[in-house]
Fold:
Amino acid sequence: MEPTFTHNKMNRIKSISESVIREMTRKAEMYEAVNLSQGYPGYHTPKRLLAAAINALDNDHNQYSITWGLEELRVGISEKLDKFNRLDYDPEKEVTVTCGTSEALMSSILAHVDPGDEVLLFQPFYENYVPAVCIASGKPVFTGINSDMKIDKEEIKTKINRNTKAIVLNTPHNPTGKVFSYDELKFIRDLCVDNDILVITDEIYERIVFNGKHISLASLEGMREKTITIGGFSKTYSVTGWRVGYAAAPIELMDEIRKVHDYTTVCAPTPFQKALCEAFKVPAQYYKRMLEYYKGARDHLYSSLKSLGFEPFYPHGAYYIMADIDNFGMNDIDFANHLVKDIGVAVVPGTSFYDSGGDDLVRFCFSQPRDDLEEAVSRMKRLRTFSQ
Ligand SMILES: Cc1ncc(COP(=O)(O)O)c(C=O)c1O
Structure:
């Protein structure tokens, strides 16, 4: 991917390529492949949420909600942020319900990144970040997450200058499964405080942590004022199609985000907002079982990939595995096309997560139902490694 920095609006949009992840889903359908590309959660949606959605439709919650989101939902999000993330946000002025985490990210970036502003992204990155920065006429700047899953503090320092407006931080991280440590977050905190940099945190996988602990950056001293905390319901409750997420930030930052949100979406889908008010009543057991389910899937796919000749990275959170494909003698695009067409398994080519690099990697998603994972592994037994 070659993001082009230009003030010309048409070129800017034209230079953004279509989402490779969503393209792979279309190919999976075309070739009747098992789809391990896009992050569809295979764990069941809590029944009380499904019942609440039907109830909301039946009971006439079918029109626009207030732009910032239903008050009951904002209060629920604010209480969850307090209990789970140790963050204190006023539901009235500092929490906005958005059309998914995706819109919260886009609205935050459009609201706060001006033409020429630099935005630091960790690569590999979730593919929506680069287009969002480019659409805002900002300039994406990249720093690596190394193969040992560590960030490079010295490199990061060299990427910061007076044009650096923001850092996008995703923990747990898609696609590597990295969970940022307290030490790393403290380093980022110091950097942002010293250089007056904003952080947009994408915490959509906060409930899917197998090793380590999820820490919200905004909970570190000095960071509340400098952070936009973003999260969503898609992955935790297996409702990716409902399109409900949120942004939480101090009033001064939130005021601007609300303007972008208002004029792009008006509001998130009302019946699903209403249904998700029930999310906060889901018992603790649900989260525990979901985690066990995904942990089992991670362990199964990780060991299967190793025995099939891949060199997978071990994820500590989220539900993806990046794997090195050196043993198969193809680049990521050729390999992904071969896998979907000839073997019947869809994955995402590594280059879609990099500004430069990634052609020796592919990403597997292990959130799919267990039968699908087993079928994919069985199909991949037909793959030939270079040495065979
Ligand atoms: C890191 C990350 N952020 C955001 C999203 C999109 O989330 P939502 O469905 O809430 O828009 C995804 C979806 O895969 C993701 O992996």
Notes: The chain has two domains: 9-44+284-380, 47-281. The chain has 13 helices and 13 strands.
